[in-house]
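user: can you give me the structure for this one chain? tokens are fine.
assistant: on it. calling the predictor now.
[tool input]
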Amino acid sequence: MNPAQRAQAQRLFEEAIRGGTPDPASWVATQTIDEQVLAEVKRLLTEHSAHLTHAEHLPAETPSRLADGLLNQILGEYRIEKLIGSGGMGRVYFARSTTDATREVAMKVLGRAVTSQIAIQRFAREAEVMKKLHHPAIASFYASGMYDDGEGAVPWFAMEYIANAKELVMWCDAKHLDLRERLGIVAQISDAIGHAHRMGIVHRDLKPANILVAVDGSPKVIDFGVARCLGNDSEMTAIQTQTGQLVGTMQYMSPEQFAGDPRKIDQRADVYALGVVLFELISGTYPHDVRALSVHEAARIVCDIDAPDIRSTLSEVDEELSGIVAKCLRRERSERFADARELGIKLRSWLRGEPISNPVAEFSKEPATAVKNRSIQGKKQPHSLEPDTIRRSSGWLVPTLSVLLVAIVALVATDTIKPQWLVDQWRKIIKSSGFSSAQQDESPAISEAILIESDPSGANVTIDGLDVGVTPLRSIIAWKQNSQNAMIIISKSGFQKHTESISAAPRGGRTAPLQMRVRLDPAATVTVP
């Protein structure tokens, strides 16, 4: 698709959404005969329809063509009050229970124009999947059924209505959430997807648009329309994705999803998508930005190029958190977390300040095959000074060392060399080898984030003599095991310098993130009489 076609598809998509037609796909087909443009618009409409359920509403001035026979009708026990969204798969209504006026639902109704067997199966599967899932961070399922519109049976289902919800990234940005708060939400989402994984369900289209946040800050995962059920204990496993068919949203798809083989798609595809969401929430960008690329170009990048270290976009992220994100985004699914629940556990460990177990082995960027190649039948390869090497060299090494030792003793006994000279030479050898510095640095640094703000802003900040930027800013303090405090200096021309000492805390010992908010006093002026 060339740029002109892409621009036309975007324009038609926006017009279809603004128009509020109950069947935008059919309306678009009357506007162009370009098959590529039509296919792109339908793709955009399908993506858009996922989060219309709660996150968006139609304009107050409802177009006349929006009216339909379902308004004020009762489906099941729910009376339909208004149309709140429409997309490529159908319409979404706001409805209220006739037996419990406090229960408000979002009712999804499959569009009459959507008649393909795959679409009908997916609609039914979404209802079946949601019926199996019961978690606070997954939108609740209430009921499903069929209604006759005069042309035949049309399926519908009712799910939890999340009033005034925002999609994940919009919520975090609007609330100016800090790093810890963002990670806390992702941990909740990971728990919800982990629950689905334990039920044998893979979402396959996790993205911010399918993760809504209610007004109280609680996340809700929606849209299980392309979910896949693993195992053989469900009738839903009969509904299979055809080999070669791509399912998902390109920006969040794993390498195995681009490959198009459903047999290789399991819960670790969701882990990859959560890794992209994590990367986006933390850094404001993507590991691979493939939004404007063709499917072929996007597949080549995601499948062949490693995701960058998130610290390349945000240096304040510590090694352990960057390792968690990197493990989610491994190209080889066997190197990712086993499921979303495991990711949630790691995020909560990081939030509590607990050291991540064996971070070098667990989060090393070295491929698992390389680790295996270093090991033969589980035995470590001998280093250059291992006992086996010494035994092989003992024919000359031991006699030589013995002669050298006897010579040194004789020189000291005859006062040819002084003992202090030997000590000085030994210290030089140790220093030149770097052994002493290695000993001093063996205590690992612990990075702790700090938010520094000043009134007025734009003040220079140094931490332990290192210039870290101007306020407001987020930076880190690298504590070592023997650290007692860190000296922070905030200075601005025309104002008095502010100096503050931050006491170190053991990992996990601080109950709240570090924050400094300082009001700078004007510099004293000297009046000359």
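assistant: here you go. Residues 55-67, 232-244, 364-394, 434-444 have pLDDT under 50 and may be disordered. The chain has four domains: 1-163, 165-369, 396-435, 446-519.
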